[in-house]
Amino acid sequence: MSDSFHRMWADLAPVGRHPGSGGYRRYAWTGADTDCRAWFRAQAEARGLLCETDRNGNQWAWLGDRTAGDAVVTGSHLDSVPDGGAFDGPLGVVSSFAALDELRRRGARFTRPLAVANFGDEEGARFGLACVGSRLAAGQLTRQAAFALRDADGVSLPQAMEAAGHDPEAIGPDPERLAGIGAFVELHVEQGRALDLTGDAVGVASAIWPHGRWRFDFRGEANHAGTTRLADRRDPMLTYAETVLAARREAELAGAVATFGKVAVEPNGVNAIPSLVRGWLDSRAPDQAALDTVLAAVEQAARERAERDGTDVAVVRESFTPVVEFEHALRDEIGRILGGSVPVLGTGAGHDAGILSASVPTAMLFVRNPTGVSHSPAEYAAEDDCVAGVRALADVLEGLACG
Ligand SMILES: [Zn+2]
């Protein structure tokens, strides 16, 4: 089992790796993405699987009759964030093929069709929207909206697809395909340290936290930084600063996370009091009530401070994804297959599994990440833990597809 995993891992490792940063730049519909897709096809063909690319650019490698229905599907994605790590995505795809190898070694007899999937453009690094392949398939992204997506160079998604040899004309909802799937299981490196803290190599996902992005516009009055008396200022930077601290405080109180990671200042001069500070808040919490509490408290703190500073605050919600609860029946079944002692944990990160869960019974397995670092070249999982992940996935697939 570890042999096939290591061979694939070594084979895929150089694809799209930037020599300077050591991180991965596998963006949708670029040369590196094409190379990842060729790698996937080669793995499928080497195993005698039927490899196809669906209308939305997702790859599928089938064992058994793909039209029979009630298929068990596993997999993840191969694209990356800018200078991403080696594990986010590829660990799930490589483990899926390795788990199939392990099941064949065990002499498993499949009673349901099985597929390994590589979902396209999961990270959204190029076009700014995550999970494009699964969103399109699930009908959560319209064809029209997908056609309007552009990268930083002004290249549209359909142009990029076409340049990479994929016909964009037929993108859109794919309900027949999803209706043929009885269960989807995605293995993923953990993007946090929960498993490290419990001392487990593998865990099962309970839910993806509700999360959203809010834009805070703090407006004041631009003026001279040298000649304007402190008492006469209407400085929105002060209101912003207090709001950042409030976000941290309120997130801690609610067991949530909240981050101001992007800020824009006008006029953005060293010697000018700003007229506008625009800050973007990303917040995620275990449940909707906690997230609502954080947002309400941060907004209240901003308004109270604005009164003191003589500034104005406007808050706009730019995006929101409600909680995704993975199907309890499938989760319980996986718990039984893995022996019942496997930890169940929530996550603040989005995944294709979260998108598909609206259409298909879906579950996730997490593999321990000792530092919790993700979306960075430092992202890491130990070899033994990766092998434990493959074994767990093989057990799950055997329990589901060979029953
Ligand atoms: Zn991922």
Automatic annotation (TrEMBL):
Keywords recorded for this protein, A-Z: Hydrolase
InterPro entries: Amidase_Cbmase, Bact_exopeptidase_dim_dom, Peptidase_M20
Gene3D superfamilies to which the protein is assigned, alphabetical: 3.30.70.360, Zn peptidases
Keyword Hydrolase: yes
NCBIfam families: hydantase, PRK09290.1-4
Keyword Hydrolase: yes
Assigned protein family: Belongs to the peptidase M20 family.
Annotated Pfam families: Peptidase_M20 (PF01546)
Protein name: Allantoate amidohydrolase
Organism: Streptomyces sanyensis
